[in-house]
Amino acid sequence: MHEVHERILARAEEIAAEAAPSDELGRLTDEAAEVLRSSGVIRMLQPAEFGGHEASPVDFFRTLRDIGVHSSSAGWVAGVVGVHAFEVAQMDIALQKEIWGEDPDTWIASPYAPLGRATPVEGGFRFSGRWPFSSGTDHCRWIILGGLIVDEDGRPVPGGLRHFVLPRQDYEIVQDSWDVVGLRGTGSKDIVIEDKFVPGHRILDPAPMEDGGLAHQVGRGDSPLYRMPFHPMFTAGITTATVAMAQGALAAFTASMRSRVTARGVKTASDPHQLAVLGRAISDLEAGEVQLFDDIERMWERAQRDERFPPEERLRVRRNQVRIARRAVDAVDELFLHAGGSALRSDSTLQRCWRDIHAAMNHASNNADPIYQAYGLNTYGHPLPASVLF
Q1: How do the pLDDT tens digits run along the chain, 390 residues long?
Q2: Which of 14, 36, 123 is nearest to 82 (CA)?
């Protein structure tokens, strides 16, 4: 077990204690963020030369799982923000020094949706846009944003998708923009940028990261970590967080049902219907975890052999991820339906997990049909739609 994972397990009660306060606050509490920061989980995929652990993805995602069981929002933020170090490690070394040179614990937010517009100028681009859903952004000092390069008439140029990295002073966080029913503690607020200059060394074409090939081009090829494929890595964080929420719901359900007695004096823990629900949920969740971590381990082994990740392999992983998430939310729904009226109370951990996992299913990474369709198209040798990222 990785040392960061051990530190997280040792502070599980602290993580759990901040789940409800983070939900009420609308972002991770400073105390919750401090646990993540001091444990080193956000540095697990960061290069060792910049104070990171450069850990295996297997260790990283297993650590995420044990954060998210105790706090959906903390697990979500750790997964999203933690993967950004994996990407920045493959960007210009000057940018890495700007971000981590003075403080290795500097966090980087996103999102990647290409909602920005970038106009070429000497030395870089003028960049503007508005992006929703920047998870954990209040605790971050840099941000990666998706955008499209446009021509002089404002029309996107072919192949112009880029990731743009900006420091905190160059963007605004819209503080009242995160009013939601689930994953409230992630603080996934809107970001606004108005005509800021982004120099060339802070910009990345993400396409070469898709099959793990960028690492060799940028001098990171000696590390198998950076030979991992980008999209399955990012989406694994979403899937792991989703599975962890379901495990948190399961723990809350069993704790409640263990001592519950119905109005007729029947112990719920002895009720055959409740027992059947419990058995089905545990089976589905265990199957999902086995599949999730088996895929991560297989990708890791492939990266260690320095092999690229062809479309069929990446699609297989994504196919499994979206199915794992669906099994997880279905299990939570069944648990919630059989938990009784007490599960509706605002102080119920189960209802918070239920809200959170349904919010998680609205993330693009958990949108299953496009992935299933792309997998089928690839199976039959048809062209794949450019809109599906994998």
Answers
A1: 999 999 999 999 999 999 999 999 999 999 999 999 999 999 999 999 999 999 999 999 999 999 999 999 999 999 999 999 999 999 999 999 999 999 999 999 999 999 999 999 999 999 999 999 999 999 999 999 999 999 999 999 999 999 999 999 999 999 999 999 999 999 999 999 999 999 999 999 999 999 999 999 999 999 999 999 999 999 999 999 999 999 999 999 999 988 777 767 767 777 888 899 999 999 999 999 999 999 999 999 999 999 999 999 999 999 999 999 999 999 999 999 999 888 899 999 999 999 999 999 999 999 999 999 999 999 999 999 988 889
A2: 36
Q: Is 126 left (phi over 0), alpha (psi -120 to 50) or beta?
A: beta
Cα-only R_g, the chain: 21
- Rounded CA-CA distance 250/268 in Å is 15
Alpha carbon distance 24, 30 (integer Å): 13
**Residue 264 in contact with residue 233, Cβ under 8 Å?**
no
**Closest C-alpha among 327, 313, 321 to residue 363:** 321
Strand-pairing partners, residue 162, are 147
For residues 78 and 7, is the Cβ–Cβ distance under 8 A? no
Both tokens of residue 373? Answer: 């369709």
Amino acid at 292: L
CA triplet 23, 25, 30: central angle to 5 degrees? 100
Residue 33 tokens read as: 């963020």
Q: Which two tokens stand for residue 69?
A: 């069981």
Residues 359, 238: contact at Cβ < 8 Å? no
What are the structural domains, with CATH classification, of the chain?
3-105 (1.10.540.10), 108-206 (2.40.110.10), 229-379 (1.20.140.10)
Return all residues near 220 (Cβ < 8 A) that are at least 6 apart: 47, 89, 90, 214, 226, 227
3-state SS, residue 189: strand
Count CA atoms within 13 Å of residue 182 on its CB side: 18
Non-local (6+) Cβ contacts of 304 within 8 A are 224
- What are the structure tokens assigned to 73, written together? 């929002």
Rounded Cα gap, residues 219 and 227, in angstroms: 11
Angle CA 67–58–53, to nearest 5:
80
